[in-house]
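Following up on my earlier thread - several people asked me to post the actual chain instead of describing it. Fair enough. Here it is, all 133 residues.
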Amino acid sequence: MTTTPDVSDVRWVKSTSSNGDGGDCVEWAPAHVITSGVVPVRDSKYPAGPTLAVAPAAFAAFVDALREDRRWVKSSYSNGDGGSCVEWAPAHVTTCGVVPVRDSKYPTGPALAVAPAAFAAFVDALREDRLSR
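Reply from S.P.:
Thanks for posting it. Predicted structure:
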């Protein structure tokens, strides 16, 4: 059984990606990692709310993934007129094990998280023109 570490007396550090307008407010307690073996992470807008206890290796992989270039790549089938606008984030696959796919006309909208094998099969079917139009 895993217990939530006591974080009542830790110094929290806000993410460098957070802004002064209340957006992207994630913070963590780096000194707590040494004593507890987990990285406490929370939403700084809700300090009394729940705290995630993340394994240090998983947290390091997460931070590395955020630092990498996360550009979305538009499908070669998309055109400049707004048609067939599908894009994906290839760098995300290696760090999270899923292929994010979204409609490039709505970049702030939802993204589908697709298993890499399913995405590869989909792309192969497109290339081989096996999908009905």
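The two ends are 52 Å apart (CA to CA). That should answer part of your original question.
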